[in-house]
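Researcher: I'm preparing a figure for a lab meeting and need a structural model of a single chain. I don't have an experimental structure, so a prediction will have to do for now. The sequence is pasted below. Please return the structure as C-alpha cells so I can convert it later.
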Amino acid sequence: MNGAGVPFVMGHGAYHDVVAEVTKELESAPNDPALHFRFACAHQEHGEWTAALEELEIVDRLAPEKFETAYVQGQALAAGGHLKAARGVLDAFLREKPEHVGAHQQRARVLVKLHEHKAAVTDYEFVLARLNLPKADLILETVEAMQASGLNDEATRLMRANAFRDGADPEIVAKLLAQAESAPEPDDALTLIAQMERQALQPEPWMARRARLLAKAGRDADARTAWTALHSRLSAMPSLQRGTALMMALLTESRQTLGIKAIAPVVAPPAAR
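Model: Understood. Here is the structure written out cell by cell.
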C-alpha cells in the first residue's frame, strides 16, 4: 500500500490482465483476503467503484482490520459521487491513522467537491509538508482550493516556491504567468519571462512575449529595444535555424513591429544559351 496515493496494483499489468490473473488465483484460494484486496484496488484504480466496494466487503469479512479497506472505500465512494459518505469514511480512517498522507489527499479532493475549500486547504497543506517533491497537479489542486478560499497571496507564494524547483514546471509557470500578466503592473510577469528566457532551449519566443508585454504596458521605448534585440538575434542565426516556421514567424513579427522591410531575394538572370 502506498500512503501517498491509491495502491499501485496496476504496476503488475493492465486492468484486464490483473483481473484475469487474480481471478485465476482465486480459483485455488477463494478465501484469500489479500487477493480480494488486490482485486478491489484494481477495480478502484480502473473506476469500477461498485465492484471495488463489493470486494472490500469480502475482505472485511475474511480479515477484519487487516487491510486499509476504509481508505480504498473512501476513494470508491467518491468516484461514485457519494461524497458525504466518502468524507465520513475517510474521517473515520484518519482518526485511526492521522498521519496517512494518501487519505488526507483523497479527503481534500472530496472536500473541494463539497465546496469546503478551507478544510481542503488544511489537508492539502498536510500532504505538501510531507512530500519532498510534490507533483505539479497536486500543487495546482492546492492553489485552486486556496484561491476558492480567498487565500490568493498564499496561492501565489506556493506557485512561486514550486515553479522553478527542479527546472521550470510548464503547468505551474503557465498559471502563474497568466495571473501575473493580468495584473495592472507587468513587473512580476517580466521577471517570470526573464527566468523562462534564461532556461529555455529556444529563448526567442520568450523574448517576443516580453516585447509584447512591454508594448501592452505602454512602455514603448523598452518594447522597441526588446524587439530590436530579438530581430538582431534572429538575423544572426544560420539560415537553416532561422528558416523554421516558428523563427520565421517571430522574424516577420519583429520586422513589422520595427517597420523593417524584408530584404528582397536576389534572383539571377537566366543563363545565356
